[in-house]
Amino acid sequence: MGKYYTMRDFADMQDCSIHESAEAFQKYIHQFDEEKSYPYGFMSQTGVDKDMEITDYYSNEANKVVSFVSSNYLGLSQHQKVKDAVIESVQKYGTGTCAAPPIGGYTDLHRELEKKLAKVHGQEDAILFTSGYAANIGVFEGLFNKSDLVLVDMFVHASIYDGLKKTNSKIFKHNDMDYLEVTLKREQGKHRNLAIVVDGVFSQDGDIADLPNICKLAAQYGAKVFVDDAHGLGVMGQTGRGTADYFNEHDGVEIVTGTLSKALGSSGGYAAGSKKVIEYLRLYARSNTFSASIAPPAVAAASKAIDLFEEEPELIGRLWDNTAYIKDRLTQMGYSIGLSESPIVPLMVNDDKKAIFLARKLFERGVYVVPATYPAVKLKNSRLRVNVSALHTKMDLDYFCDTLAAVDREFDLRISVK
Ligand SMILES: Cc1ncc(COP(=O)(O)O)c(C=O)c1O
């Protein structure tokens, strides 16, 4: 048995040229050949839905699977009313804008979506970006520099870390209010801006930011709160208006960033905040200013999807019913799902190799779920990230649980503690 490589082994190889690094990385890919378990080679022949057909990276054959990979929480990317809105938008606006927003790529369709997003988050205005990633880069690079201090929850999304590279930041232990208070007290008044950045719903663990206490501390020590609510929109709160709405903390949040690519079933990103800060970002968030705007069909899809939060509230109800059902079953079966408080269910494996092997065996039995390993989480916290959707039936959820138990038993993986 040779060395088992992880993705950490090939990041930033100091003495290797581009081609040497790429060549060395082949060792990572090919170590999975024997068990046919390379986890990143999947290609779908269908839309991303709860039932999918995936081409097997090794055999090249199509495999019918029940999918738990996508953050399409309400199934809106497949909703007929959303598809109709997209077709209508193509007839009117065509397929792309082919221009950045300040120089011609901004339509009334874009504006309408911005207004809806601002309203949903209880903010004055909003600005669109081509992705949630670009939104975080644009907002944090655009607003902060070395005169500022940004306190960041250690589990925020990678795009926030990337957006903060040019400022001073301090990482605090996940949801640790004591540390946050001590640091705020110490740093208060010493910086041009003092800010706190969290995810509303954390993307790998599925737990929620302690916004009531974060906002209270921020008000006490003069800090501004930024929330990435990529996984909160459409999920949290009675009508899916996000994590700040769930806690009734709109007033304590300076800016909400987010994505159109999860519950809204589309693609693109946004930031919502006060009118003047949004106006500032229109020219100082470089990922917006220097990038062609979101294509009209994607804008139309997200815009219709927001309407459906109110038109079809039963979708959110079904999402939470399904979430409760699978969590109950997994817990009763002795599996650890960490601290999840949302439809993101981390099935803890705590071993990189085992998580990848398990995902493969499930795939071979018609269950598509991705392993979350380094760099998304620490290697010792590797898990399967099970994303629940309103579209799943009880039969799908049972199939997942029963197949998991069968694979766990057959290969003696001992993931369940029962
Ligand atoms: C918390 C969080 N923020 C931002 C993003 C990036 O969103 P997008 O896929 O639209 O770039 C993601 C996507 O995974 C996310 O989970």
Order of helices and strands: HEEEHHEHEHEHEHEHEEHHHHEHEEEH
Helix content: 25-40%
- Report the CATH C-level class of the largest domain: Alpha Beta
User: Largest sheet, described in full?
Assistant: 7 strands, mixed
Shape: globular
The total domain count is: 2
Structural class comes to alpha/beta
- What ligands can be seen in this structure? pyridoxal-5'-phosphate
The first-to-last residue Cα distance is: 30 Å
Number of helices: 14
The tally of beta strands, per DSSP, is 14
* CATH evolutionary superfamily of the largest domain: Type I PLP-dependent aspartate aminotransferase-like (Major domain)
| CATH architect. name of the largest domain | 3-Layer(aba) Sandwich
CATH topology (fold) name of the largest domain: Aspartate Aminotransferase, domain 2
Provide the low-confidence segments as ranges: none
* Average pLDDT level: 96
**Portion in strands:** 15-25%
Radius of gyration using CA atoms only = 22 Å
